[in-house]
Amino acid sequence: MRSYGIAALTSVGRDRAGSLIKPRVDQIRRFDLLQTLLLGGAVLVVILFYVWQHVQVVRLGYQVESLAGERAGLIRQQKELRVEVAKLKSLRRVEEIARRQLGLGSPKSGQVIVIE
Predict the structure, then answer these.
(1) Which one is predicted more confidently, 4 or 79?
(2) S-S: 98 plus which of 59, 71, 86, 104, CB 3.0-4.6 Å?
(3) Residue (of 100, 78, 112) closest to 92 by Cα position
């Protein structure tokens, strides 16, 4: 047998033990890195969802304000149109058009026949 010094055996044992332990440590580090990346990704997704949701709420708020303004304008326009319809249906206006444009006048006595 060969005689090895204690230092030689110890360094060989250390190298051998290191080569056995190193892959396991690398696996653990890789697993920790994967966990960290997954956790960071999940937090990023939650933050992006929160920001998107906030942007949607603000956008919808502007849309509601725009539609409220449009509604107020349409209500004002409806009131104006109702006033115009009332003016056009006015009996005084109809009578004036009948006299001026159509040449009609008030009925004379004897022209009116009352049927019971």
Answers:
(1) 79
(2) 104
(3) 100
The predicted model scores a pTM of 0.49
Nearest to 98 by CA among 111, 107, 109: 107
| pLDDT per position as a tens digit, 96-107 | 999 999 988 888
Q: How far is CA 80 from the centre of its chain?
A: 34
Q: Helices then strands (H, E): number in the chain?
A: 2, 0
- 28-69: per-residue pLDDT in tens? 677 788 889 999 999 999 999 999 999 999 999 999 999 999
Query: Cβ(94)–Cβ(100) under 8 Å?
Result: no
**Which tokens hold the place of 73?**
């304008």
What is the secondary structure of 17-65 as a DSSP string?
HHHHHHHHHHHHHHHHHHHHHHHHHHHHHHHHHHHHHHHHHHHHHHHHH
- Dihedral sign for Cα atoms in the order 103, 108, 113, 116: positive
